[in-house]
Every structure is written in C-alpha cells, then in structure tokens.
Amino acid sequence: MTGFSEDTFSFLRQLAENNTRDWFAEHKDDYEKLVREPAFSFIEAIAPGLEKISPHFEAKAKKVGGSLMRVHRDVRFAKNKQPYKTNIGIQFRHALGKDVHAPGFYVHIEPNEVFIGVGLWQPDAVALKAIRNHIDTFPKSWLDANSDKNFQKHFTYGGTSLKRAPKGYAINHAMIEDLKRKDFIVLAQIAPELCLEEDFTEIILDYFKLTVPLMKELCRAVRIPF
Length: 226
Hints:
- The protein has 9 helices and 5 strands, in the order H-H-H-E-E-E-H-H-H-E-H-E-H-H.
- It is α+β, with helices and mostly antiparallel strands.
- It has a single domain (6-221), classed as BirA Bifunctional Protein, domain 2.
- It is globular, with a radius of gyration of 19 Å.
C-alpha cells in the first residue's frame, strides 16, 4: 500500500485555500499523485479484508463508478459554489446499491477530521419504511445489534431525526427514538495521523467489524444479503 502522506493533507489544505477551477487545473498532477493514487492503493488493500466481512460490499479502484467519490461538487442547487470537495470520501457500497443512499461503509479524510461512517444515509421512502417496520417487529434483535460495548465506545448515531413520532407509531413506543430516525448512520471519529500509519487498512477494518451486527440488521430490513 502506497498510503496517504503529509503531502496528501498539504494538498487538501491548499485546495481549501484555492478552491477554483484554474488552480485545480494547474495542480491536477498533484491531485493524481497525492490523492487519487494513494486512495486507489487503500481501496485495493482493503478489498480482501472487506470481502471477509461480507462478499456483498464492493471495493473498486476505478475513476468512474468506483469507491473513491468524485472531487467535483454538485453546485447546481447549493449556496456554496466552490467547485471542489476538500476532503477524500471513500464508500464501499452494497453490490445492489446504485448510489450513496445504499447501505455502505464510508471513510472520510481531511486534514483536521477523519471519521468512519457505516449504515444507510438518507434512505428512500421505501427503505425507510422497511427499516422502521423491522425495528417495530424485531426490537430485541435491533437492540442486540447495538448493544456491544466496544461498538458503543467508538460509534455514535449521526444524521437527522423527526421531531414527532412517524405516522403509525405511538409517541410512547418503546423504540420511538430509533423509529424517529431519518438516517441510520453510525460514526466513529479517529485521529487524522492514523491515516499515515502503515496499518491504516487494518485499523479501518477493525472499526468496520464492530458494526457487523448493525449492518446485518439493516440489510435484513431492506431485504438484501449481507
């Protein structure tokens, strides 16, 4: 594994300070050498371990349709018109998923913040209904998947929730806080300097392994294999 380096972080800092198309065009070779190539090396290195966790999640080191997310921002409806992302986003999606809203494992890298995300972010209405129905029908199974002490030590739920109970569920439902969720994502913050370690791949895989019970429940809820 080539790995990320201090130069990777330096490039991301410079991009944040010079977020223009002209600057990026002048430094395209730096992006390739310092971001894309080490990201592809990381993706290739993690693939065997990820397959052992589950054969249904894909690690693809390719420019289009791969695990490395695009550096270009979609600014069509955004107030922030800066054209480029200043972080590295890597997602290992389920083979049946078409986009970032599918079940997946995610690694976010920027100079001052590195975190791991696992689960479903902004599931569509059908998937959201299925997950809520699963939690309602199998509450013990859901609670067990969230009960491991090491999982609770490192991961917390992120995303947004409804302010009121979703339609069809009582406000005093025993699982109401989980039922109100609109995102089913757990996050773990890690020290940015760990990206520079030779065993960074193993570190990430160890975090992924902690979330296996939860991912099994989510996959079961939306009727896809784990």
